[in-house]
């Protein structure tokens, strides 16, 4: 801890020297964003090929895409990206890794503009620039990762009073939202479902980081699988992820993705960073200037992400038919959104057919 405190730079507010683990975490987070952002484009190309060859779009119940190699390439690309993101949490703090997930949106938007001819508006370009600039600020001022030698140390962090208070607060809030507010206003207020996902998501990321660190130490030769704490963190990951998936699917099946995605990303990222600061003391030993710079960088990234979402071309997609799946984490921002792509493809084909009919009528 002394080395980490010293590396924080005391009272100076300037950039800190990145540790080797931070560099690995950054590289893995960037690779994750690249793979995940690219996977959307590859899967959509695969969906188009499958629809053309079979004549039945996935949006109307077709499953021919399962026989399309390109779609599987996209799915494998996404899985590789998720694995890279999982490992990134084992090397770098969540304060650094989580905001970098927004870069996957940039990759997807830029590739879609050039490959799929989907419009990227001027505000969308500004959103990309803001995400990149904010991410650079966060990377430059990122806190050093605390050296952990055993899962017992992580368990000690997870059972400190401050974090237990946060966990208890999350459980109480989620319970109230699920059993009281969800039945009454879940179908009319977008904040209900997204709040449940974000609160549970913050706990899932902490558990993912704990589990990833345990596996990292195991692969380095210090077996952590013998400790029950490792398996407990694995159980928490499973419970939190399943809860996230359930309520995020409900949110996207009820509300427009253009509304759900930015709200979810902002809430999820903010709560995840808060949980990480409490549990792992990411800001311990950092100067006020560095902390302020990180907060400003985070605000810029969140603002850029919102711009990217609200400028997407959703006007042809009926609200009741927006995708059924979405990201489990902002490191997966707009992730698992394959169903949205299928609906886009179906609506695009229908619009093209209507335009052809109108042209034929005009000829006669």
CA-CA gap between termini: 81 Å
Total helices: the number is: 13
- Please state roughly what percent of the residues sit in beta strands, choosing from under 5%, 5-15%, 15-25%, 25-35%, 35-45% or over 45%: under 5%
Radius of gyration: 22 Å
Q: From the helix content, strand content and strand pairing, which structural class follows? A: mainly alpha
Give the proportion of residues in helices.
over 70%
Q: How is the main sheet built? A: none
Number of extended strands: 0
Give the rounded overall mean pLDDT.
Answer: 80
Q: What are the low-pLDDT stretches, counting only 5+ consecutive residues below 50?
A: 1-13, 313-342, 356-364
List the secondary-structure elements in sequence, H or E: HHHHHHHHHHHHH
Shape: globular
Membrane topology: Multi-pass membrane protein
InterPro entries: EmrE-like, Mg_trans_NIPA
Protein name: Probable magnesium transporter
GO molecular function: magnesium ion transmembrane transporter activity
Characterize the structure shown:
With 364 residues, this protein is mostly helical. 73% of the residues lie in helices and 0% in strands. It has 13 helices and no strands.
Features of the shown structure:
364 residues; mainly alpha; disordered N terminus; disordered C terminus; magnesium
Question: What's a concise summary of this model?
Answer:
It contains 13 helices and no strands. It is mainly alpha-helical.
Layout of helices and strands, plus pairs?
Blueprint: H1 2-7, H2 20-54, H3 69-91, H4 94-100, H5 103-115, H6 122-140, H7 151-158, H8 161-185, H9 190-219, H10 228-254, H11 257-280, H12 288-310, H13 338-363
Helix pairs in contact: 2-3, 2-4, 2-5, 2-13, 3-9, 4-6, 4-11, 5-6, 6-12, 8-9, 9-10, 9-11, 11-12
